[in-house]
Amino acid sequence: MKSTMIxxxxxxxxxxxxxxxxxxxxxxxxxxxxxxxxxxVLLLNKxxxxxxxxxxxxxxxxxxxxxxxTGTYSIESTMIGYSKTVLPTVNLTNPGxxxxxxxxxxxxxxxxxxxxxxxxxxxxxxxxxKMVINVQSSITSAGLSAIDVLERSPGVYVNRQENSISLGxxxxxxxxxxxxxxxxxxxxxxx
Length: 191
Fold this sequence. Notes:
Order of helices and strands: HEEEEEEEEEEHEEEEH
């Protein structure tokens, strides 16, 4: 019994280095030697560039990728606003942590200074039960009265003699200004 325990212990001691895990640690810098926080560090298989593991740098730019098998890898570092940096060959041959030299990311020259998103409302919007006329979207309605704008709108019929407005041939149109219903009689709206 004692001899089998000693034999099992010896076999375990011989096999252990074969299954030992390793790690890679390093630091990601900018050109001024400041650590870049929250940069992505990807460990890729050297042969087919498949992702093995990934890490995100801490506030000082340090990273650690643990529990790796020995082998040959490549490391890719990226961060928004910086160009991608690739270490093409990283050999992990011995158990334990491999400490890499500094990884330097260069600022991306194609970074945009400012992005301006501008949208305009369409002149006419047809919604359920109503038609919205966005006067600010029309160049031709500058200097016109509200009645003139309504007369030029499709599907709207303005009868100036009877002070009435019809939409799609239907009378009894409710007028909303800035999204609020007008409680005035139609004659007062004309004025």
